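Box S2. Input/output pair 1.
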Amino acid sequence: MEAFYTIQGEGYFTGTPAYFIRTGGCDVGCVWCDVKDSWDDKRWPRQRVDDLVEAAKAHPARTAVITGGEPMMHDMDILTMALQEEGFKTNAETSGTHTLSGHWDWICFSPKKFKTPLDEYYQKAHELKVVINHKSDLAWAETHAKRMNPDAQLYLQPEWDKSDKMLPLILNYVKENPHWKISLQTHKFMNIP
């Protein structure tokens, strides 16, 4: 769908410069999705892996974030291997609803209520990031946290349009449940992509 150089705004790598590659195609259907344009993968032209890697190499950072849409709707093996061969750390952002492909240095698993994730992500992901859209999402987040591998980082992130209501709940929850951390969409505060 698009590729651009920016600052990672969410989760464990917040504040890190990274080259983002956003794939077209998503069948999860989050009502609050901020990139609904990505859902229809036929709307976006195919790009050559070599061209994506060359564009990434034009920037000084060597972190590549593959996001979507839902990147695992596509086979990520060739792209991630090509990026790693050029010295990039490869980070995935996925809802975990499709079979994991690719060679990853970091997997951010962000399950959604709209489509059940696959079991493999609970053991393979480095980070669990749950978007909180309603106070009931806190209990739902715990059901996923209980299944995660013991080394995974756990993040609660307020849905952007409801942040004023959800953030106070999250703040109190994290203080009472210190196995969680807070993720904010800092790129939106900075008005960058």
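Box S3. Input/output pair 2.
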Amino acid sequence: MSATRKNPTPKPTSTTGHRVVAQTPRRSAMAAIVHLTKEEHAARGKAARADVPRRSHAEWSPPEGRRSPVDILEEQATTRVPELVPIRYGRMLVSPFAFYRGGAAIMAADLASTPVSGFRVQLCGDAHLSNFGGFASPERRLVFDINDFDETLPGPWEWDVKRLAASFEIAARERGFTETQRRVAVLEVVQRYREAMTRFASMRDLDVWYAHVDVESLLPRIEGFVGAKQSRLLERNLARARTKDSMKAFQKLTHLVDGRPRICSDPPLIVPIGELLPDAEAADLEQQLRTLVRRYRSSLQNDRRVLLERFRYADIARKVVGVGSVGTRAWIMLLLGRDDEDPLFLQVKEAQASVLEPFIGASAFKSHGQRVVEGQRLMQAASDIFLGWVHTKGIDGLERDFYVRQLWDWKMSVNIDAIVHKSMLAYAQLCAWTLARSHARSGDRIAIAAYLGSGKVFDEAVADFAIAYADQNLADYEAFKVAVDSGRLRAETGV
């Protein structure tokens, strides 16, 4: 194993790229900061090439003593709702890409053995292509951004880039694209990330902070790239996204019981609280939930707290969400405002320790709910106005961390199962620019841009990595299928 393959336990460093003079293991807000010049930032980036050559990022082979992917999944299952774990496995069993989506912990362990240049950013931690999408900004514009932050933590920027690049390789294989088409798509991701980081390096700090993707303003450019047919399909998807809000959820997910709105039962995907607990315990828990709402309000800024106080608790149900998240405790909570026709649906989702934590250290926040929220606010250009966190006791009596956001707010995602090659290239550009913008907000964008340079050395290296890791993912998927077929893991399919 070469020296560049080593990824030693990182020392605490500032995510901004400034030198930290004094720092405790949990980063102190009082730590002194020395501001570098542009030239000093750039020199740091260029110097890192000597220690970690850009070509070294192509390397991937299973490290000695690599843990079985099945062992990692079983370990994760110990902290999840037991009856929901088979649903998670069933969803991961659908395809190698579905397995990849659910395997963030597997790749986190693998990335820990890969080269890093030494510059930290706020990581998404699970930056695969399905964790990007559209949603409404507070100004009611449809924006495109990263939309999943369960694993967010400060760490090496390369990890997000490699997870994103590999996801395009795996998804492109699933779509039956040729080897050349796959290579072009992955290179598009890495090149656009590199070029975007170079642009952000030349921008003022405030301009970086305000940068965002307004989906509607992109339509003319997208049509010129993918053609009129794909552009019309996108416009229809945009129109549908604008209707996907709390009112839509209210119409779809509730019915009247004794004249009052209640969440419909659809087990095991949606289970109202009354079906999970006896009547007396459910009534007691509902009283706790009213307290939970009050405590959650304190995590919001004051104007949003005032808005939330206009709503009253109505009902709650457990909901199965996503692929990798299945088995964590996720709830949907119905609140009512002016009257019974004024709904607000919130998602209350458990936040466990990030899968990155064993490799880059614990979060600076005691609450994992706050870790998720603070990471999301740092990486996104605009966040849900109801984004907040709470620490509370679950129905099992154990203390747990949760974060809260609106269930639906113009949510829009790409259909990977139907995407054509030209659309994938356009989508690659969007994801790459967005990831670079998110990293530029929190990390040393000038040093990272200087490290990447203007050539394609890094692009080609990560494209090679993506191929090798897609092969690894396929091998892990096959091992996972064997574990299911042998009865070691129980999977419920079609749920």
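Caption for Box S3: Confidence is low (pLDDT under 50) at residues 1-6, 8-28. Residues 246-406 form one domain.
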